[in-house]
Amino acid sequence: MAEKNGFKVVIAGAGIAGLTLANMLEKMGLDYVVLEKHSAVAPAVGASIGLFPNGLRVLDQLGLYKAIEDQFEGQALMEKSHTRRPDGTIISTTRRMDVHLVRRYGYGMYFFDRQKLLQILYDKLQHKERVLVSKGVTDVELTTDGVIVTCADGSVFSGTLLVGADGIHSAVRAIMKSLAAKLEPGYFDPAEEDSVPCFYRCNFGIAQNVPGWVAGEQHMVTGRDGSQLVVSGPENKVYWFLFDKLPETKYGKEIPKFTSTDEIDFAKKNYSRPVTEKLTWGQIYDCKISSTLTPLHEVVFKKWFFRRIITIGDSAHKPNPLGGQGGNGAIESCAELCNALMSAKDRAGGSLSSLTTEDVVKAFSETQRARHGRAELVVQRSHETQALFAYEKPWLSAFLVNCIMPNGGAESTLNHLAYIFPGGATIRSLPVPRRPRLVPYEDELPSRPVAGQMVTLARGALVVSMGAAVLLTTKVWRLPLDEIRAAKHYGLHRIHWFGNTGATDVLEKMITGMALHVREGDVMAKLHGVYFLTQLISPLLVYGVEGHRIGNRGTPLSLPSFFSVAMQIHGIGRIAPLHAVLSAFATPESPTGRPVPVEVTKSLVPALTIGFVLPTALLFLPTPNVRAWQYIAAWWQFGPPLFNLLTNIFSSGLRWWESRGRHSKDKEEEKDELLDSYQNRDVPALKSAYAYAFAVQATTHLASLAYGGLHPGVSLWSTFFALPNPFASAWNLASVGNAMFVFLKYDMVVAVSGYVASNLYSVWNLRRLGYIKTHDAIKATAGIVAGQVLVGPGATWAGLWYWRESVLSSFS
């Protein structure tokens, strides 16, 4: 039932924003009238619309999703999404795009005629008589309790408030600014309209029955000073967007308008431009139903409202259409406006009939506050994507498009598309249909995500602290290499694994250093060696796991062998802080980036045992056979990278074993790694690996404390924490063995600081993303601190990752 006693919303524009808002108001029982300047509600203007999960979720609340799905009944969905070079050759392909989006977000991706969506929105309305055509708004009068709107034909309509949903060339916005200039000079920036930029023009259109077109495919074609987006649609249609960078950026009134003659010239110029290896843009253009050439404004206006007038959709925020978020953003703005009106209704005692101008302004402020940041993000990201694909910075685009993006795989592509989905708005007064999905929307999370300055401060604190830790190593890494070189033949035999080369000399020095600490050192040096080397299990395991996570592909974290080799050369004290910082910037934020290939997880424990745990244990076994010990020490030097190598070998073997006997079609169907990862089959093996690392390191920690505490010749403080002043010019150590002991003590202390910082930041990151509650983050932080004493840093890290894996996998 409609709100009585005069509350009424006047909507200017029967586009996507206007008709969506009308449907929402009907659902909430609020009166409205829609004034459309064209002579038809759904004019054939030759445009398409892309609907994504953030927009579809709202339309689903309105009961419109089924009608949208029906447009694609019997049609091929988005099977493949290709990124292509300017010559049409493929850079990368994401298969089953629609399936992935549905599994992740509950909704797919639908490209179809904008006219069809307008018809769906109109057909859903119960009060179609409230949608009036040929009613272009020409004047607005503000009264103490409402608005009076005059149309071009002289008709007049009154209401409580006016919503301008009439596009980038909004008549309502122009009238609103004119009123503000008279009533509150300075409210709007008078120069804002003239500063609206236009970087590109776009020829978009609809074609049908294109020879050689493969249904169910999408093509993103890169190019110099331009790009293309070509998408499949229902009824064997093809929707295209051909973007062309203007010779210079135009602003405001300088932005050109294009005629049909301009479009003909544009078509001739670009006719032979490749879309695929076998299809040109001209071949698509020849099959067009409709098309147009238009400038692309990119703007989010600073203020969207004045008193009882507000603008939404393209009237307030207009992104580059490459990102496909224009219509979806308009739908979100409608939802937030309705949320604000319902809040105003609650504040007014359950009725909107007597809203004051102050009440309306508060509701409008809430609407803009809820949407402005997201609208700016969409405009920014759409512009950056366009700049990337149009090679505005050729060297950067060449590197990212040809090197980084293909290595990132489908997970990276999907996340780039879906960055805006989880934060999507809903109509809070209406139920949200429950559709199975892997990725929670922000309003479904345990906690509200943290954004803004806190995120920057946390990352900054980590970078500064880890930078200080690495800087400290430049002061304390004082290995007497000449003395080690002089001592290297003492009691040792030469190992000629690398012949008479510098590599052999380096290996012998590393073995000598290990011998001075582990074999020739006193009881405290040996105790420290046992403890320190065992505590390397967790960093090795975690670096290996993170290196194989689907979400880390294409990032530095995907190179575990780099870190394992670097820690042997530069010390874990330098590598742990580096990995901590890289993790803070590169760790995937979506739960879908969490999985690790199952065959990798099954390989971790045997690879870790053979590659590192076994040589570490043998290193400390007493043996009179110096040559045998020397080979064990050499084996240990290669232990960290050997762990990574064995993980790859074992996992490849398992992958081959599991693929035996499959038919080629079955292989393509069954081994879609990303789809397989949604089942969380990797979690049990991962947790087993963490439990193994926890058990070994916790046992070593407790045994070391017990041994050191009971041994009369051991001081735990001297063993682990008695360190010379890092800023002293000389330490005057008694022997090269003592120098090695001090180096390893500093290496461990700095490394543990990196472990702890990384652990704490990981907990903060879970809370930042809203995946855990604040009290859970506090408990985890306390556990990290207490764990350093109770079970040791390595076991604490393993236990934390066990818990973290549970948190992230729980969203599936």
Automatic annotation (TrEMBL):
Question: Which SUPFAM superfamilies does this chain map to?
Answer: FAD/NAD(P)-binding domain
Q: Where is the FAD-binding domain positioned along the sequence?
A: 8-346
Among its keywords, does the record have Metal-binding?
A: no
User: Membrane-crossing residues?
Assistant: 604-622, 730-756, 777-803
Gene Ontology molecular function, alphabetical:
FAD binding; monooxygenase activity
Q: Which cofactor does it need?
A: FAD
Arranged from A to Z, the UniProt key words for this protein are:
FAD, Flavoprotein, Membrane, Monooxygenase, Oxidoreductase, Transmembrane, Transmembrane helix
Signal peptide start and end residues: none
Keyword Cytoplasm listed: no
* InterPro entries referenced in this protein's UniProt entry, alphabetically: FAD-bd (IPR002938), FAD/NAD-bd_sf (IPR036188), FAD_mOase_fung (IPR050562)
Quote the PANTHER family the UniProt record gives: FAD-BINDING DOMAIN-CONTAINING PROTEIN-RELATED, FAD-DEPENDENT MONOOXYGENASE ASQG-RELATED
The entry assigns this protein to a family as follows:
Belongs to the paxM FAD-dependent monooxygenase family.
User: What's the protein called, per UniProt?
Assistant: FAD-binding domain-containing protein
What organism does this protein naturally occur in? Stachybotrys chlorohalonatus (strain IBT 40285)
* Highest classification ranks of the organism: Eukaryota, Fungi, Dikarya, Ascomycota, Pezizomycotina
